[in-house]
Amino acid sequence: MLASAYTTYLLVAFDRLHDIYPYPGYVFRAPYAGLPNLFDGTHTGQEVLMALPPTIDDLLTPRGKALLLHPTGRFADALAVLDSVCTDWAPRMPVRLYYSPGDEEAVNANTEHCHATLGAPTVDLGVDTGYNGFVHEGSEVLGVPEATRWFTALSS
Predict the structure, then answer these.
(1) Do 20 and 57 have their domain in common?
(2) Domain final residue, candidates 30, 52, 83
(3) Which phi and psi angles does 31 have, rounded to 5°?
(4) Is 89 part of any domain?
């Protein structure tokens, strides 16, 4: 289910910013062509999740899958910019990278890559699955206060 959620979010957000497909039915199978309407800021995460199919195969048309597997044009260009987030700049302010081992949604390799290219220190938040049973959600519970303490110490 999370794969369907993140795939839908990616395609909807990138289309709004970069016009990557001509109409929702081009990438989303029926009856899911209306999914972009749920990403309007007024629907809860639960509403979005309940409207999604269980698999990407159920979600995407063959053209939608091809777009993901072999991005071209504006989509490829936008993904290249996104992929360079830790390589095409040097921080002018202190930076820390927070992560939780075993995060089922955010790949820790991203943290390792940014650490290697930026030289920013990493902060292992540990693992907390007490929030809805997910390490990812637990990392937010652990990370927000940790980052807040660090920002507060910087301004002191």
Answers:
(1) yes
(2) 83
(3) -95, 25
(4) no
Q: How many domains are contained in the chain?
A: 2
Long-range contacts of 150-155, Cβ-Cβ distance < 8 Å, separation of 24 or more = 150/96, 154/94
Per-residue model confidence (pLDDT) at position 110? 87
- Residue-level pLDDT at 75: 96
State both tokens at 92: 């002018």
pLDDT for the residue numbered 91: 86
Rounded to whole angstroms, the Cα distance separating 128 from 131 reads 7
Quote the tokens at residue 72: 């071209």
Residue 148 in tokens? 């807040």
Find, among 68, 67, 3, 8, the residue nearest to 39 by Cα: 8
pLDDT mean by block of 10 residues, the chain; 156 residues: 89 96 96 92 88 95 97 94 85 91 87 91 86 82 93 87
Contact between 71 and 79 under an 8 Å Cβ cutoff? The reply is yes
Query: In terms of residues, how long is the chain?
Result: 156
| Rounded Cα gap, residues 25 and 156, in angstroms | 53
Place of tokens 């660090």: 150
